[in-house]
Every structure is written in C-alpha cells, then in structure tokens.
C-alpha cells in the first residue's frame, strides 16, 4: 500500500520528513505504514541529511506561581519538563509524568536518548523520599512509560549523562546517610536494563556528568569527609574499554561547583566562572564572554551545534532570562522568554529530532 495514495513512496517520504517533531505521534496514529516509517532509522537519517531535524532543549523547570498544597513543604515550587526549540524560539511543556501530578521529582536528572527523554531519580515532591524511579517520554507515541528502577540503595545528586543513542550513565552522589558514593552504572534504554560500571577511584557527591567522544566524564564533587568542599579533579570512563582513566587533577579551581560544566560539539569544555563564560584550553580556563547582568545568578549552560544556551536570573527569586552565545565570535543573542517559562531551572539536556 502506498504511503500516500497516488504518490510514489519517495515523494511521500519527502512530505512526511517535513512534519514537525511534535506531530510525530499524530503521524504514527494515522496508519501502520506511517507508524513504521516514522519509527524507522532511515526516516530520521533523511530528516537530518535534509537539514530538517531540530535541536530541542529539555529543562526541568519550576512552574511560575504554582506550588501544590499536597507538597510536604507547600512553598516548594512544582517542576515540569519544558521544551525550547532554538531554531524557532518556541516554548512548550510536556504532560506530567505518571504518578507525579504535583510535579517532577525534585533534583531529578534528565537525559536525551534517541527520540526519548529519560527522567531519573530525585526526591518525591510530596514525601521528599528519594526516588529510584525512571520515566521515559517517547516522542514517537507522545506518551510516558515507566522504566526499570535504579538498582541498589538510595542515590541523590549524582552525575548523569547520555550517549544520545542508547545508554544513560550515572555516577557518584550520596546515599540516605549523606555518604558520598564512588559507584557507577548504566541504563540501556532499548533493553530497559541497568548494568554496574567499575567504581570510580574517588567518592564524588554533587559531581557533574558529561558524555563526549565515547567517554563519560565525571567532574568535581566531594567526598564524605569534605562535605561541600568541592575538589578540582575529574574521572573519565571509556565505554570502549569499559575502564576509568587515571584521575585528572586540577580540572577546576579549588572549591568550584562543577554544575555549569558542559562540552560543546566542537570538543571544547565550557563553564561559568566569576560572571563569565570560560573555555578550557589545556589546563587553563579562558574567559570568552561576560555574562549579561540578567543571567549572572544561578546560571545553567547547555550546548548544541556549536552554540551555548545560558539561562539565569538577575536576583534570587527573580525570573529566569535566556540567552544564546553564538560561535565562533561569542556574541550574545537574547531569547524571548514567556513569563510562564521563566521559572527556576534545575537540570537540562538536548535532543535532536
């Protein structure tokens, strides 16, 4: 049967690949043939080759002026998943994850895996109990599903990053006794299975995870004895050899929180430092752009296609503003941010749809 009656299939595919990503679930519902087409690897390869795929930024973001009375501490804001499309400047939000009508788990992590968004861990917003839950939003079906829970004891404030294709990597954090962890694991989305990784050499609570060039970088953090005094080092897990590298010393400044560290598509590492965006050159961080005044507090960085998205606020408790730092000249472009999407941001990731 033809994909579109009276049209050759190659022409029909040219029509289908032009449909926006947020309509994939509608396409899949039309017919079995369309569903198979939209879910095929070739469909998305053709979209990308034709310059039709789009970078999507996903943020765990507080809903402005909304705190549920069901929460343990009613003043705590409710968090949701916000989507931002840099190419069009459009903002939207995903439906609530199943079982969390009062908002996402606090301090959860999110990672893009293929055409799925994976949400892991955090604290139950009603009870503040540590969650091991894994939720997967499939953009093909437009629906959530439950993944296999994180194994082992409780884990909070861990490093998390995805290879963007199949796996999510988790390392460090702390247990329910505030003991920093050096254990690590990976989640295979296709198999819905967790597998242990070798332990890191050091305990790393509140560390940052970055996946780049086939390697899972775990940056900074602190041991149980140090409690909040961040160290400068990093460890790197090579997926090909399934081994951790020797600890890399002096990656950060003493006492620096690694939360803003990101890796650009061109292989450079960036972070916010002393009111600037800085790039790592060798063992030195060089400032490349001063942060605009309205995003200097609590900044968040994300990267896609050589650009940096930076969100932050001018004063504590104020609205978040959004800017793009465009390469190669590191010039700022302010993004129009609707009030309903100006809430506090805890985490984020990027997908290509």
Automatic annotation (TrEMBL):
<dbReference type="GO" id="GO:2000762">
    <property type="term" value="P:regulation of phenylpropanoid metabolic process"/>
</dbReference>
<protein>
    <recommendedName>
        <fullName>F-box domain-containing protein</fullName>
    </recommendedName>
</protein>
<dbReference type="InterPro" id="IPR044595">
    <property type="entry name" value="KMD1-4"/>
</dbReference>
<dbReference type="Pfam" id="PF00646">
    <property type="entry name" value="F-box"/>
</dbReference>
<feature type="domain" description="F-box">
    <location>
        <begin position="4"/>
        <end position="44"/>
    </location>
</feature>
<dbReference type="InterPro" id="IPR015915">
    <property type="entry name" value="Kelch-typ_b-propeller"/>
</dbReference>
<dbReference type="GO" id="GO:0080037">
    <property type="term" value="P:negative regulation of cytokinin-activated signaling pathway"/>
</dbReference>
<dbReference type="Pfam" id="PF24681">
    <property type="entry name" value="Kelch_KLHDC2_KLHL20_DRC7"/>
</dbReference>
<dbReference type="InterPro" id="IPR001810">
    <property type="entry name" value="F-box_dom"/>
</dbReference>
<dbReference type="InterPro" id="IPR006652">
    <property type="entry name" value="Kelch_1"/>
</dbReference>
């Amino acid at each position: 049967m033809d994909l579109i009656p009276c049209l050759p299939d190659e022409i029909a595919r040219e029509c289908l690949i032009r449909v926006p990503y947020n309509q994939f679930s509608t396409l899949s519902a039309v017919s079995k043939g369309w569903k198979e087409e939209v879910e095929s690897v070739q469909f998305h390869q053709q979209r990308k080759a034709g310059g039709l795929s789009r970078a999507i930024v996903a943020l765990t973001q507080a809903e402005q002026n909304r705190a549920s009375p069901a929460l343990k501490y009613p003043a705590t804001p409710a968090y949701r998943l916000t989507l931002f499309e840099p190419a069009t400047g459009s903002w939207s939000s995903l439906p609530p994850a199943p079982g969390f009508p009062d908002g996402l788990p606090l301090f959860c992590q999110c990672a893009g895996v293929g055409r799925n968004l994976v949400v892991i861990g955090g604290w139950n917003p009603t009870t503040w109990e540590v969650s091991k839950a894994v939720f997967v939003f499939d953009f093909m079906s437009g629906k959530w599903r439950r993944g296999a829970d994180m194994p082992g004891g409780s884990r909070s404030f861990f490093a998390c990053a995805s290879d963007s294709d199949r796996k999510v990597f988790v390392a460090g954090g702390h247990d329910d006794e505030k003991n920093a962890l050096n254990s690590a694991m990976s989640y295979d989305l296709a198999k819905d299975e967790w597998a242990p990784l070798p332990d890191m050499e050091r305990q790393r609570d509140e560390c940052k995870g970055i996946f780049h060039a086939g390697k899972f970088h775990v940056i900074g953090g602190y041991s149980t004895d140090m409690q909040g005094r961040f160290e400068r080092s990093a460890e790197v897990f090579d997926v090909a050899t399934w081994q951790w590298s020797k600890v890399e010393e002096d990656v950060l400044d003493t006492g620096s929180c690694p939360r803003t560290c990101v890796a650009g598509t061109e292989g450079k590492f960036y972070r916010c430092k002393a009111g600037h965006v800085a790039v790592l050159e060798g063992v030195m961080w060089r400032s490349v752009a001063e942060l605009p005044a309205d995003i200097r507090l609590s900044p968040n960085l994300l990267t896609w296609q050589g650009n940096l998205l930076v969100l932050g606020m001018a004063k504590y408790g104020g609205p978040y503003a959004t800017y793009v730092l465009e390469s190669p000249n590191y010039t700022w472009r302010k993004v129009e941010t609707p009030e309903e999407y100006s809430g506090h941001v805890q985490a984020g990731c990027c997908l290509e749809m």
